[in-house]
Structure formats: structure tokens, C-alpha cells
Amino acid sequence: MVIGAVREGLLGVDDPEERFTNLYDRHYRSVLGYALLRTEHGMAEDVSSETFLIAWRRLDELPDPALPWLLGVARNLLAKQWDSRHRRQRLVDRIAALSTSQDHLILDIAEHVVDRETALAALATLPEQDVEAMALATWHGLPPDQAATVMGCSARTYNVRLHRARKRLDRALGAEARVARPHPRPARARLTEEA
Amino acid sequence: MTYPTPRSRKEDDMTDRVFAQLKPGELDELTEDAYLRRRSDDLARAFQTPRSPQRSRRLTMPRLPFLITAATAAAGIAAAVIVVPGLVSGDATPGAPTTAAATRGSQDSQGPQTVDARSFLLAAAVTAAREPAESGRYWYTRERVIQKVTVDEAKYTARVKTLVKEWEARKRELKGKPAELEAANKEMEKKIGELKASPPKVSYAATAAYTEDSWHARKKGDSNRTVGNQDVKITFGSPEDREKWKKAGSPVLREDKPSTGDLDLPLILSIDNPTLTIQSLAGLPTDKEGLERQLRSLYGKSSAKDRVDFAGYLPQTSLDLLRAPLTPGTRSALFKVLAEQPGITSQGEVTDALGRTGVALTSRFTSDGDSFEFRLIFDEESAKLLEYSTTKEGESSPLTRVAYQDTGWVDRLGERPRD
């Protein structure tokens, strides 16, 4: 047994079924989480299953780490259906669709008190690829080279997108914060906070 | 100390933290639930599927719903369905029945020119074989898509907002009463869940039509492009439907703004057969027996076979192939394979969504207990694919209707074929 097996659950295992099961257990949720932010539920699950089936067939060719590759396959399946039977949805629309009452309505961070809807509206002004760049970094925790693999671009291009996304989002949020700040910050700035 | 200063790490952190909070909290729950639910099936399905010894051009690969639309319409929020009316170019009357719809009613037996499906396909095979083999850097496609509007997105959003507001008010009332608050939270979750499960439907009949151009690179590594949402046209079933839409606040049914997307990853031509690529098409057999063997093998490994029999799978995979750049030999062989299939019937001459006349060939399949008609329309002279549509049995207009306006090789992104 090798150290690599601990890391990715893949390298040290010879039995393909076992390797695949490890891969699935480790990454299924991430792949589905990614797909859910691009298309509705049933389709997202189907795409995730499909992604792993492709991974099974290509098991011997999987890079390490495998997650960026898996997300890239899922992205491919989602984005490229040649026909229009199932459109990919905008990330920001999916966020809105998946958000429930449990998601805080107010984001209270540092000096910023931002209404969730306003933040989403700010996000909606960004190009889709910029939002995706931020999501890969922030939600999926991928370093730039891996995120670039998912998006099928160079790390440099990815970094440009990420930088631009942060800048634009920051600007949009900053405008909002200036409006919000004259009010003294109430003790329960978060409506969701209980006494 | 003034601008423009490089962004500080701190600023990035702050923005990232705001962004991090936008991640829907429900996501983890959803993925965990799906993981538990699908794991054994997904693993079993994989283990039954042969693994490729190496990356090869063996076209295997599975499944997946051409009919996701039907499967997800029930669960999905943005599920859209497609319908016909008023779509023929130059037809200014909303809801006017098209020739196609009229012809469908008359079925095969009494069309003005009844063409036998088998004879038509065999003739098409000869025509296709005569076409010159062409190539280029990008395979260009222009399609006109018509979708029926089903979910009322504006109303859905408004209802979510109202629910959230109510809940916020309720929470303020219940401050200091944790048990009741907990109950109120549960109630709220339930309401949101119900709303998601059955989103408000539009009360009017409307279709959104748009044009999409796409450029698919022949070489791996070249980027691909799509330009969607062009010439968006909303059509109402009747003036009454338009009034109802106005009363609903005239919501935007489809954004009337072209959207361009460039993608560097290789494209998948067929969701049922995800390994098919522009590159692999050139290696498909050019004889009937070879191609049929290939297709049956594809089907055998595809979990489309869980949903449809080969007769149901073949026409849909054929659609995926026919709109792609096949070699004349493979195209011809495909027509021959189709000619031998039972269950494909001709509806004779019909008019497609763009007003062009062609021969309609129809097959049927069942998915999730519903029966569907799948129709391909071909130009009688050139045997080119003009349109496909899927219609649920018992409904007068198609679920999906896509007309291929132009296809061909070009050398640059953004370029269109001449002539």
C-alpha cells in the first residue's frame, strides 16, 4: 500500500472496482454539487452518473488529482450538448433556485452588510465564466491550475477571470455597502440570528 | 495610497467570503441524499460496462436521456417544452396552425404524396453516397429552436420572496420561543419544498423561438463557439393568451439578447453516446452491416437500453449522427440501416418550422410510461435533415422542434458557409 492511495484513494489500489468505488465515494458529491449549480436536479444527477461512467471506462487514464478531470467531464456533458433540448442555466439563476430560507438573507462580513438578493444581483452582472472562476476557487476549493483544467483554459486565463470577477464583485458590493453603512450596525444585523 | 493600487489579499478574502456565503446551504444536503440514493446503481452500472483498454475510437458509451425533458419536467423548475404555432417564417398570425400540424392529422395514408419510408431511405442512401466528401476547420450549424413556455419564473420568484418575508416576520414574533421557532422553520422548509416540487405554471399558451449558431472545431484543442438567443420571438397561442400574459405583468419569457459562448473542450455529439466526437465520426463504418453492428454494440453498452429498445434508440442516435459531419459513406450506410428498421413510417410530405417541404419519417418510443412520436424531416432531393421533433402522444403540438437552417464546413469561427 502506498502513500498515494491515502491521498487520492486510487494510486495504490490495483483492483479496478475498488479504485472506482473509492473514486466515486470520494468525489460524487463534489461532481453533483458542481452540476446542480448548472442545471436542474434530475439532469444534474444524470450528468453526474454519466461522468462516473466515463471515468470508469477511462479509469486507467485518470490523472491525479482526479477531481478537476471529473468536473471537466461534467462541464463538458452539461455545456456541450449539441442540441438545445436541455439548456445549461446560468450559475446565478441556479444559486437563486437552490437558495432556501435557510440561506442567510443578510451577508454580514467585515464592514459590509449586504442583502443576499443584492449580492446575487451584483453577481448577475458578471460574465458567466467569471462567476464560474470564483465558484471553482471558493466553493470547490480548487487551486488555479486545477480550476483551469475544469474550465478548459490556461491557468493564466483562469487567473485573469478570477481577478476580474473579484474586482467586479467587490465594486458592486462596495457600492451596496456604502448605502448600508450610514445605518449603525444593529446588534442583529443578520435577520437569521436568534436572540 | 490612492488608486489604482493592486488588490490586497485582504480585499480578495473579503470578496471571497461574501461569495462563499452565496453558496446555497441546501446543496450539501441534496448531494448527500443523491449520493446515498444513486451509489449502488451507479456502481453496478459501471461494473457492467466494459472498460476501454485504451483511448480508442470504439464508440461505446452510454445513455442518458434524450428525454430528460420528460423526466425532469415534473421535478424541474426551468423545464421547457416545445410547441409549434406561428413558427413558420413569414407567418404573422400567432397560433395559426402550420402545414405540418395539419399534415400530421392526416397521417400517412392520405398525404398528397405518400412516400414509403423504406423506399425513401434507400433512395436517400444513394443520394448521400454521391455527395462529395468535404472538410474544413469548423462544422457550422444554424438551428431554429421553438420551446413552449411552461414554468412561470416571475411568479415562482415572487412566491419565494413572499414566503421568505412571511417567515422573517414570524421569526421576529417568535423570538425567545425556540420550540415554536423550530416548528416555524420546519413549516417554512416544507412550503419552499412544495413550491419547488410544483412550480407555478404559466396560465397562457406561449412559445419562445430563437436561433442558435454553433461552430464545432474539427481539431482537438481548437475552441468551439455557440451564439444563442438570436431573433427571439415570443408567440402566444391566441390574443387571449397574450392578454393573460399582460395581466401577469408581461414577464420576460426569453431574454432577447444574443449570448456567445466559447469553449475549448472537445464537444460531445450525442448525449446517448458521449464518446462520439467529430474526430471519431470519420472512423465509422461505411457499409450497412458494419455500421449496424457498430450501432448495436453502442446500444448494448448504452443505458439508453434501460429506457428504450433498439428501435427507439436508433432514430435518436441517427439524429445525432445526421446533424454531424458524417462521411458520405457512413451517411449512406446509416440510411440503409434505417431502411431495414421496422417501426419507421412515412407521413409523406410536410412543411417544417421554416416553411420548407420535406418527407417526414416517424417512429415511436416510450419513456417513463409516456408514449412519444419522434419525427425526422428530410429534404426529398438532397436527403438533408431539415428538422426533428418529439411529440407526446395525445398532444397536438411537439414537445421539441428544431429546424436545421444551415450546416457546413467553414474555416473560421464566426464564418458561415457560402451559397
Automatic annotation (TrEMBL), chain A:
Sorted UniProt keywords: Sigma factor, Transcription, Transcription regulation
One Pfam family linked to the record: Sigma70_r2
Molecular function in Gene Ontology: DNA binding; sigma factor activity
Residue stretches making up the RNA polymerase sigma-70 region domain: 23-87
GO biological process: DNA-templated transcription initiation
Family the entry assigns: Belongs to the sigma-70 factor family. ECF subfamily.
NCBIfam families, sorted: sigma70-ECF
Protein name (database record): RNA polymerase sigma-70 factor, ECF subfamily
Species of the source: Streptosporangium subroseum
From TrEMBL, chain B:
Entry protein name: CU044_5270 family protein
Keyword flag Transmembrane helix: yes
Keyword vocabulary terms for this entry: Membrane, Transmembrane, Transmembrane helix
Record-linked NCBIfam families: CU044_5270_fam
Transmembrane segments: 64-88
Domain of life: Bacteria
Segments for region (Disordered): 93-113, 217-257
Biased composition range(s): Polar residues: 104-113
Low complexity bias: start-end ranges: 93-103
